[in-house]
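Submission sheet (multi-component)
Chains listed below:
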Amino acid sequence: MTPPAEPGTGGAQAPLDRLSLNQITTRGWSLPEAIDGCTRAGIAAIGLWRDKVAEVGLDAAGALIRDAGMRVSSVCRGGFFVVADAEERARRRADNRRAVDETAALGADALVLVCGGQGEHSLASARDMVSDGIADLAPYAAARGVRLAIEPLHPMYCADRSVIVTLGQALDVAEAFPSEQVGVVVDTFHVWWDPQVTTQIARAAGRIASFQVCDWLVPLPDVLLGRGLMGDGPIEFAELLDAVDAAGYDGPIEVEIFNRAIWDTPADEVVAAVKERFARHVLGHHG
Amino acid sequence: MTPPAEPGTGGAQAPLDRLSLNQITTRGWSLPEAIDGCTRAGIAAIGLWRDKVAEVGLDAAGALIRDAGMRVSSVCRGGFFVVADAEERARRRADNRRAVDETAALGADALVLVCGGQGEHSLASARDMVSDGIADLAPYAAARGVRLAIEPLHPMYCADRSVIVTLGQALDVAEAFPSEQVGVVVDTFHVWWDPQVTTQIARAAGRIASFQVCDWLVPLPDVLLGRGLMGDGPIEFAELLDAVDAAGYDGPIEVEIFNRAIWDTPADEVVAAVKERFARHVLGHHG
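Outcome: structure written.
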């Protein structure tokens, strides 16, 4: 184990080069506050949420990001393709196109797609709706230089959030498109349990559009908010980073944590903890 | 959809031939009460729990089962192989042998193995411990005519209950042994989300030692107790039963539900609901 990085020292900056703060981790911060907080902490990349961008307006958000010299590692999120009603499907289709436009305007690496849960449909038809939705969106995104990133969610979300539940399945969908147009998200919380994860990360070479990290709390206190800081659960980050590295991914590593207690903590303290845990548990021997 | 079966009529008995009541579903009942309740309801098979058997004693339990003419579709449970401490491992090894002896004495179809969660170990080493534990137990069970049944649990239990999380992975372990010695459990709650489930059920031909059903509640109210009566969630039982049938499994179908509200309901009412939902949602077009 590497000792925690010392904030503010030159030696500690290097291993943090790849750290990106997903905005949901510091949920109480507005976008300007998050940009300032990252700047204070020496974090050069950020994962944006569309509602936070909308609060300040797209143009202003883009200007703030550019002025701060930050990289946008992802935009959360588009997707939710599972819908039978034609009118609602048209609404979501339009919203996904707006999400692509926003991603292009923000110069982000990728638009994350949360594909939608089974709902009242058969699982097979829900999965077909996802494939159809992505096929419909991909050319629009490609024309605007935006990369889509299919995020497999943990299987416990299959009924209500995402019928795409494994990295292998996400790749089955993505591989119908050029890798620069449709990639995948590797999020440790969603994929760590998968006996195939190493194999599928290797298969994902060239398609890893986003790498996100957080830990799995034991016992899981909540289906939605049971995520923890790296080191607070069983996930073996160094092994997963090794696999992602070996697959040729060298982009930002986003810390994305849904957790009530963390949201209730002053965000500067959260950022400090994120940096420390990132250096110790994610970079580890890579640091 | 088939209309609900009418309890107590000759016509309703036939489709219930395959129904087995897992004791946990009527948790408030002792073993004698459960046997009486099944007899009243015309249910001819039961899945036993070792603690309920121990309450009356193994010999008395066996006599009650034989006198009632019931089939024991499974015994829950052995396993919990993930342990590094030598003394604790020896204790669990001895307990697993007792579980085999009890399964033999009860004439049950299989001993269900819940393999153990990751705990403080690396995921790879935890999975090795499972394989080693089964390799150690299998010859003992084979010598006593007991079939082991590896149960893959839902991935949300990987940290604390079972590092075996997919049917494919369970088969990878089971296939090191003859199919009559080591089989697998197909439990709809644990496997329904898996994009590979149909393929892996087909692969499991000859190794399906137990087929268990219950539904997945949405939103999941609790990680441990979020199971519901068939029809209360999204699981497509008829499709899974088709796959299991096609794989040649023609044994009992066990209804196993962990749910506080169901446990708080008078057990005879639960059994009536189980019969009705089983006929309507599980047998469906098979009935």
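Remark: Chain B has a mean pLDDT of 94.
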